[in-house]
Design brief:
Blueprint (H helix, E strand, L loop, with lengths): L27 H7 L2 H4 L3 H17 L5 H19 L11 H13 L12 H37 L4 E6 L2 E7 H26 L1 E2 L15 H8 L3 E2 L3 H6 L2 H27 L7 E2 L18 H25 L12 H24 L2 E2 L1 H6 L7 H11 L3 H18 L8 H7 L13 H6 L9 H14 L14
Parallel strand pairs: 3-4
Antiparallel strand pairs: 1-2, 5-6
Helix pairs in contact: 3-4, 3-6, 3-8, 4-5, 6-7, 6-10, 6-12, 7-10, 7-18, 10-11, 10-12, 11-12, 14-15
């Protein structure tokens, strides 16, 4: 559903939820600025849900008769059916609440005017936005999980392949290609933990807080909480109508996801260049050049990399808004949904595209293997000497001399004469060639979280476990 709605032809009569104390109507320029229906229209399913729960709560508080409450519920179902069928707002609809109120009056008449008793658009929009966010975090979690699965699948296919690791974008030490892929898996798992925390933060019921001071009728907020699926009830009505921390948390998490996507995209783009050639891109998520027929451009990855800037901009925009507000509700908060919706919509486009682009990548073992130069085993040579009894400092110095000789002569370290090794340090022996093997280098690093074959296998299994679906809760009627 699009977040930009073009209202239908303007009707003759306005149907605002306020205006009794005004002698004239607002100007067209003010309506253009003030009306938010183009953004918050997508909240209508959640506003319908909370309105039906409110109708029941008003009956429980003896504000409505049972027949009136049921009539309101029936009317709201009819409104939902119309909107679901594609009915669009009119120019007089200030926001989604005004739209639903207007349609409800069309369906059931004057009894619709009783629904707004005891509530404000302040607690109404806060509730609808929280409900939307609770669902959105689940959709985002599923999309992140899909990318994690793509990373895990590729890691499994290249588990035994070796490649250079990099620090400062300079070749460092050989690692398993699976180890590199999984280095992008675990940041996404932290993002999923943040999404769960943001969902819990959103799951606090503000409905019943009124405009600022709470509801003047004895409605049951516990009933509302249970009906709408919230985890808790807001403890302070002033805070409840202005609390947008949960949106800030979603935007921060979205920014972190964007950052992690950007770093993954950057690695893949670099490794897919002709200069590296570790990765060959597929055709489903790339494009060609309008001038150069040979080009295959990783556009999906580049757009993912660029999206991180939008995530950061959305977060900064909201935080800058919140920091300047006095307590309680202020109309500045109307823009909170613009940033929330944009961040969520963007990620729900980008995440599947990155997962798909990664899934169709082919990893070229030959190019990765050929990039493993002997100087990358310099640390292993130093460790070799340490195992023979040297201190690491003197081992570091001795190996540095060999590296300098290799670079100055243009001869790979494994091709240097044995005399060069003994001249560098007396503890070098005939078995020094073993220390210059990439496979041996990787095999030495079997600590938890290391790149050794056993450690990587354990890491793959751990990744599989975190992607398993949660266990189905046992029924309370199950036999013990």
């Amino acid at each position: 559903m699009s977040d930009v709605i073009t209202p239908a032809v303007e009707v003759k009569k306005s149907h605002k939820l306020w205006g009794g104390r005004f002698g004239t109507g607002p100007t067209a320029a003010f309506d253009a600025l003030n009306n938010s229906i183009g953004i918050d229209f997508r909240l209508w399913p959640y506003d319908i849900r909370l309105s039906k729960a409110w109708a029941v709560a008003l009956w429980g508080a003896n504000v409505l008769t049972l027949d009136e409450s049921k009539e309101l519920e029936r009317g709201l179902d009819a409104v939902a059916a119309r909107l679901d069928a594609g009915e669009q707002p009119q120019a007089s609809d200030e926001d989604v609440h005004t739209l639903i109120d207007r349609l409800l009056h069309e369906e059931i008449g004057d009894v619709a005017s009783k629904l707004h008793t005891g509530r404000s658009r302040n607690d109404q929009v806060a509730t609808a936005t929280r409900l939307w966010t609770m669902d959105a975090t689940q959709r985002l979690d599923s999309a992140v999980r899909m990318l994690q699965q793509s990373l895990l699948d590729q890691a499994t296919t290249v588990e035994t392949a070796l490649m250079p690791s990099y620090t400062h974008l300079q070749r460092a030490i050989p690692v398993s290609a699976a180890h590199w892929l999984l280095s992008h898996f675990w940041p996404l798992e932290r993002d999923r933990a943040r999404l769960k925390a943001a969902q819990r933060s959103a799951a606090v019921l503000p409905l019943g807080s009124g405009a600022v001071a709470g509801c003047a009728y004895p409605i049951s907020r516990v009933l509302l909480q249970g009906t709408l699926g919230f985890d808790a009830i807001s403890p302070n009505s002033i805070d409840a109508v202005s609390d947008r921390d949960f949106i800030a948390e979603v935007l921060f998490t979205s920014t972190m996801i964007g950052v992690h996507l950007s770093r993954l995209a950057e690695d893949l783009i670099i490794y897919g260049s002709s200069e590296f050639g570790f990765v060959q891109f597929g055709e489903g998520y790339t494009s060609g050049s309008s001038m150069m027929p040979q080009k295959r451009n990783p556009d999906a990855l580049e757009l993912a990399r660029g999206s991180a800037a939008r995530m950061l901009g959305n977060l900064t925009s909201l935080l800058a808004t919140l920091k300047g507000l006095p307590s309680s509700y202020n109309k500045d908060l109307q823009d909170d949904k613009r940033t929330l919706f944009d961040a969520t919509d963007t990620l729900l486009l980008v995440l599947p595209a990155v997962a798909g682009a990664l899934a169709e990548c082919t990893f070229r073992r030959d190019r990765m293997q050929s990039a493993l130069s002997s100087t990358m085993m310099a640390t292993d040579l130093a460790d070799y000497l340490v195992r023979k009894g040297a201190t690491f400092r003197e081992a570091h110095g001795a190996v540095g001399k060999l590296v300098r000789e290799s670079e100055s002569t243009g001869v790979e370290m494994q091709s240097l004469p044995f005399a060069s090794f003994t001249a560098a340090h007396r503890l070098f022996a005939a078995d020094v060639s073993d220390a210059l093997s990439p496979a041996q280098s990787v095999a030495h690093r079997e600590v938890e979280g290391g790149t050794g074959p056993v450690a990587v296998r354990a890491q793959i299994e751990a990744a599989r476990v975190v992607l398993l679906p949660p266990p189905t809760p046992r029924s309370s009627n199950a036999a013990v």
